[in-house]
Design brief:
mainly alpha; elongated
């Protein structure tokens, strides 16, 4: 049995080395995705175009204007003379937010009940809208503390938030670990989905069918090379992300390696499951892309928080393997989580992978259909 499996492994390795397109998918595509997602899909909203209308024109109001202008969050600041001009700037997409400082700001600011500063925000993009709200509040608090008067009572609570695990709130530290899960799911399922379909399409399946090998041996012989290839791909992605985006590694790398095995096993099982139904490589490839990329990006917590989804969608996320591996890799890299914390996610991946492998083995035919 071992001899037959080793022969199948050598055969599959030769297929992989001769197929430059597959190697390109494994190593080139992840680099492109890491660069694009790491830089383009950034949760840190900066350089927001801002308009400022200063009706007060006093040293205090100019201090507020300067604080807004020097902030790294706002860029391309415009200074319309009248409040009525702000609406035209919004409609022409010149600005995304505007700050209107009322006349008398400097005097009222020192009273126990200071006059409000108006902030107008383009709410067509909720992400930018929330960011503007938070950024402007932070600037106002900073300026108010600088000019605080003895006549202004101190706030009853001094709030000093402390961010854990990702102190700089860098979006890449959130995106890249999840992207590893998406890439591994896509690559593993894609490559294994076409492995049996390729045998059917090229006619070499007939040779396997007349050879003295069992269905389980064929499955194992085809899966093992892709397990090694997936580990190389995962290590390559993490090293590239560490060099380019300085992704932190706070947990145990050996634990990450060990818990990556069930996820790769599950992804390969899904690929084999798809290949057992597909008759051509093109069908297998399309089925793998649709069934892995879309669920892994949308329903895994990779970008959108699962707890904010409707209840039926949250129930659907329980069968998405990437959801559990994203918890594992983010927990180990960012929070230094232990196995006891990640045990349930690991167990689910093992069970789901076994289900897919069993179904693929049962679907595999050892004889040609007449």
């Amino acid at each position: 049995m071992l001899t037959r499996i080793l022969a199948l492994i050598r055969k599959e390795i030769r297929h992989i080395l001769r197929d430059l397109r597959s190697l390109g998918i494994v190593f080139v595509l992840p680099v492109i995705m890491v660069v694009l997602f790491g830089y383009a899909l950034n949760m840190d909203v900066r350089h927001i175009p801002l308009g400022i209308v200063d009706h007060d024109r006093t040293p205090e109001s100019r201090a507020l204007v300067e604080a807004l202008c020097v902030s790294e969050y706002f860029d391309g600041v415009r200074f319309p003379d009248r409040t009525g001009e702000v609406e035209a700037l919004f409609k022409n997409r010149v600005i995304k937010a505007a700050v209107v400082i009322p006349k008398g700001y400097s005097g009222d600011r020192l009273s126990p009940h200071p006059r409000d500063v108006q902030v107008l925000i383009d709410g067509s993009d909720p992400t930018i809208g929330n960011a503007v709200d938070n950024y402007t509040n932070a600037v106002f608090v900073s300026v108010q503390s600088t000019f605080r008067s003895v006549r202004v009572p101190s706030p009853p609570v001094d709030v000093r938030p402390q961010f854990l695990y990702n102190q700089d709130l860098r979006g890449s530290h959130f995106i890249i670990p999840g992207l590893v899960a998406v890439i591994l799911m896509m690559v593993c399922a894609l490559l294994t989905s076409i492995t049996i379909a390729r045998e059917k399409e090229t006619g070499t399946m007939d040779v396997l069918l007349v050879s003295p090998v069992r269905p389980l041996e064929i499955i194992v012989g085809k899966v093992i090379p892709y397990i090694g290839l997936a580990f190389l791909d995962a290590a390559f992605i993490l090293m590239f992300a560490k060099i380019v985006f300085d992704i932190p590694v706070r947990g145990n790398l050996m634990l990450l390696v060990g818990l990556t095995v069930p996820f790769i096993y599950c992804a390969l099982g899904i690929g084999l499951f798809i290949s057992s139904f597909a008759s051509t490589q093109q069908v297998a490839m399309m089925a793998a892309l649709v069934s892995t990329i879309l669920p892994s990006v949308i329903l895994s917590g990779f970008i959108f928080p699962i707890f904010s989804m409707p209840a039926p969608i949250r129930a659907l996320t329980h069968i998405i393997p990437a959801k559990y591996y994203i918890v594992i890799i983010r927990g180990i890299l960012l929070k230094s989580s232990s196995f006891s914390v990640l045990r349930d996610e690991t167990l689910f991946l093992c069970v789901l992978g076994t289900v897919f492998v069993i179904i693929a083995t049962m679907r595999f035919r050892t004889r040609v259909k007449q």
